[in-house]
Amino acid sequence: MPDPAAVNTMFSRIARRYDAANRLLSGGIDQRWRKRLVRVVQTCRPQTVLDLATGSGDVAFALSRALPPESRITGMDFCQPMLDEAVAKQASDPERGRNIEFRQGDGLALPVGDEEFDAVTVAFGLRNMADRHRALSEMRRVLRPGGRVHVLEFSQPYRWFRPFYTFYTRRILPAIAGKVTGDREAYEYLNASIEAYPDHSAMSEELRRAGFREVTVIRMTFGIVALHIGTR
What we know:
The chain has helices spanning 4-14, 18-26, 29-42, 58-66, 80-92, 132-142, 162-181, 184-196, 200-209, and strands spanning 48-52, 72-77, 100-104, 117-123, 143-154, 213-220, 225-231. With 232 residues, the protein is an alpha/beta fold. It has a single domain (4-157, 198-231), classed as Vaccinia Virus protein VP39 (Rossmann fold), CATH 3.40.50. The model has no long low-confidence stretch (mean pLDDT 90).
């Protein structure tokens, strides 16, 4: 399991270049993945949303644009430098994300009460948490009955595509990321965390063990990313 202190330090180092690296390394496809997440969240018409592991706020801002202005979004992350990037984006445009509150918080012990949210989202953050079951249980705790969790995360690709993907993540991705961010080690960790993460079937079972029902999964881009949805 990831070491929380090491993960926090790593994201602190790359916070300023995080968005640029994401766009470059994914060829911009990461934006399509997040748009799909937001479209799914819209279907449950939530009034209150917790965007966990919000990072620099991409999902929170997309939700703010997509949901009615009276909805309330909380963007939460345990890495303050990443939150600083999100707050800077928000401050740069007075109309941007007016219904978002950014807060520091640990996904393993969320600093909010029971049943406070209609929806929880977490995009590319669950694999960095030291205890997935505990994190998922916390997400369930803060959801209202009938609320939904949305986990967008890297997954295991289709079998035929796996050799190409593995070559990219092991050889090409760290080299490019090292030049963009100056921190090759952080993206070597990224590759290791992806390879250690469960496939879509095992991840669905983890959501069920955490108490979620009606668990479904949407696989994207040859299976390298999966969006899991579960109902409290």
